[in-house]
């Protein structure tokens, strides 16, 4: 009996050591309280829409509230700077657009370092830009538009939803590619810029697809091309610039998810898995596609590579177009 008791004690001790080791340590339940999702823009925009769709599904899945805090200002820098300083515990999630990859090159001093301050989770969705014109413009294709702009240097103006947005940078890239001379008029957001084109005040623009889709269907805008590798389900009859033989114009407004650097990997993994699942749920996918957003859900490694490539791409365009840096 004494021998049996001794063996039992040894086995119990061994089990205690085994399960106390880091490899077998249990990760605390997550989430066990409310989770804040920071959105760097006002409500009702594409990033806010994606965040709210995902927040609702995460709340249903985990039985804890995932709530949105809209923190607009400084081209997204206000929110991104705040999120960079948040505790890396999984209870602050940052949803971003492409300003995350543009701002380090656009601003003299962005309040975050994309290489050090965040853990990429996933690209939830994205929307390519489109080349749109007022119906009265005397051109019926990209080729004819380029010819029109070349024949009338300085006459026409492109609208954009703001300096440093991917539609603005798509305009600059288009201008550089063809050596064109046209003015650029920045507006405070996508809605006023696209309305200026509809009204004929600034008769052409590059614009993210969501605010333009219905206007194209209603005949208030003409769509010449999109800046994606493949056609958009929202505008399936509109060719890509690549199809038209115009290379190197790929650009989109992405909707990405980040966590503060140092967040435990099991939490990062869990959120990546769940968000990738959520954006492909039939009801969520339908709502995204209806406004021109294409669901994605790429892996952490894929998203990290995407961010790196996007930063390099826009850094070159900003430099080549001699766009003045903000805050200098």
Structure description:
With 328 residues, the chain is of the alpha/beta class. It has two domains: 35-126 and 253-320, Bordetella uptake gene, domain 1 (D-Maltodextrin-Binding Protein, domain 2, 3-Layer(aba) Sandwich); 128-226, 3-Layer(aba) Sandwich (D-Maltodextrin-Binding Protein, domain 2), CATH 3.40.190.10. The chain is 41% helix and 18% strand. It has eleven helices and ten strands. The chain has helices at residues 2-20, 46-62, 77-84, 99-106, 142-151, 166-178, 190-199, 213-217, 265-278, 282-290, 300-320; strands at residues 35-39, 66-70, 92-96, 118-133, 157-160, 183-186, 204-208, 222-226, 252-260, 294-295. Strands 1, 2, 3, 4, 5, 6, 7, 8, 9 and 10 form a ten-stranded mixed sheet that branches. Helix 6 links the parallel strand 5 (157-160) and strand 6. Helix 6 crosses helix 11 (300-320). It is globular.
Percent of residues in helical segments? 40-55%
C-alpha termini separation = 82 Å
For the largest beta-sheet, the strand count, sense and barrel status come to:
10 strands, mixed
Q: What is the molecular shape?
A: globular
Give the CATH level 1 class of the largest domain: Alpha Beta
Instruction: Indicate the proportion of strand residues.
Output: 15-25%
What is the total domain count? Answer: 2
- List segments where confidence is low: pLDDT < 50 over at least 5 consecutive residues: 1-26
The CATH homologous superfamily of the largest domain is named: Bordetella uptake gene, domain 1
Report mean pLDDT, rounded to a whole number.
91
CATH fold topology of the largest domain: D-Maltodextrin-Binding Protein, domain 2
Order of helices and strands: HEHEHEHEHEHEHEHEEHHEH
What is the rounded Rg? 24 Å
DSSP summary: helix tally: 11
Number of DSSP E strands: 10
Structural class: alpha/beta
CATH architecture of the largest domain: 3-Layer(aba) Sandwich
């Amino acid at each position: 009996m004494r021998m049996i008791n001794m063996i039992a004690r040894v086995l119990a001790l061994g089990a205690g050591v085994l399960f106390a080791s880091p490899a077998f340590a249990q990760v605390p339940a997550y989430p066990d309280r409310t989770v804040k999702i920071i959105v760097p823009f006002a409500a009702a925009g594409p990033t806010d829409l994606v965040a709210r769709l995902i927040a609702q599904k995460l709340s249903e899945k985990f039985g804890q509230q995932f709530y949105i805090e809209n923190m607009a200002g400084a081209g997204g820098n206000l929110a991104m700077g705040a999120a960079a300083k948040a505790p890396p515990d999984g209870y602050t999630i940052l949803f971003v657009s492409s300003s995350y990859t543009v701002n380090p090159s656009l601003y003299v001093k962005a309040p975050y370092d994309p290489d050090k301050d965040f853990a990429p989770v996933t690209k939830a969705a994205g929307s390519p830009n489109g080349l749109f014109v007022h119906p009265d413009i005397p051109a019926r294709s990209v080729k004819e538009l380029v010819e029109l702009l070349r024949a009338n240097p300085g006459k026409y103006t492109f609208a954009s939803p703001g300096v440093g947005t991917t539609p603005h940078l798509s305009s600059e890239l288009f201008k550089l590619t063809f050596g064109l001379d046209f003015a650029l008029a920045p507006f405070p957001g996508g809605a006023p810029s696209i309305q200026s084109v509809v009204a004929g005040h600034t008769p052409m623009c590059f614009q993210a697809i969501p605010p333009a889709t219905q206007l194209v269907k209603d005949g208030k805008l003409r769509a010449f091309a999109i800046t994606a590798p493949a056609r958009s389900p929202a505008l399936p009859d509109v060719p890509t610039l690549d199809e038209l033989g115009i290379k190197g114009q790929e650009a989109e407004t992405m909707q990405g998810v980040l966590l503060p650097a140092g967040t435990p990997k099991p939490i990062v993994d869990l959120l990546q898995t769940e968000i990738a699942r959520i954006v492909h749920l039939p009801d969520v996918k339908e709502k995204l596609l209806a406004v021109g957003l294409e669901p994605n859900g790429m892996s952490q490694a894929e998203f990290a590579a995407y961010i790196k490539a996007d930063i390099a791409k826009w850094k070159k365009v900003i430099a080549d177009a001699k766009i003045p840096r903000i805050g200098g």
